[in-house]
Amino acid sequence: MINRAQKLHLLSEMIAFAKHDKDIKNIEYNFLLGVAKQLEIEREDFEYLIKNPINYTHLKSHSERIVQFHRLVLLMNIEQEHGGGNNSKGVIKLYNFGLRMGLSHESITKVLYLMESFPNKIVPPDVLIDIFKTQYN
């Protein structure tokens, strides 16, 4: 289980990802707020993170990194679906976040490729897990 500092970092990382085009749109804000609630982060802490990001901490568990990557994929898709920015910039940023989390470039590339074949570009969690499991073994 991840501790509070790791939860804050995860949320801060997602906020940074959403801010890559400078503004957090309402739909992104609501998505991030939902993630904060899921992580049991209070709204005032969430608001603080928007203005004051925290430093990167490496997630130890491979499964936690996969879950975080999936959240970032969802966030990128929400942004693009609602008129947010350049697709290639988001994909590059997502790819780099995945690498920084220590995920294999083969798995990240496969997820990004397969994403195009799913409705709303949302890769189902079981497919995502299978992709990373194959590369991890």
The span between the termini is 22 Å
What are the low-pLDDT stretches, counting only 5+ consecutive residues below 50?
Answer: none
Mean pLDDT: 81
User: How many distinct beta strands?
Assistant: 0
Which percent band covers the strand fraction? Answer: under 5%
Q: Helical percent range?
A: 55-70%
Tell me the number of structural domains. 2
Mass-distribution shape: globular
Structural class: mainly alpha
Q: How would a textbook summarize the main sheet? A: none
With helices defined by DSSP (H or I, 4 residues minimum), what is the helix count?
7
Cα gyration radius (Å):
14 Å
Q: Which series of helices and strands comes N to C?
A: HHHHHHH
Structural description of this entry:
This protein is an all-alpha fold and 137 residues long. The chain folds into two domains: 1-57; 59-136. It has seven helices and no strands. It has helices at 4-18, 26-38, 43-51, 62-81, 87-100, 105-115, 125-136. The mean pLDDT is 81.
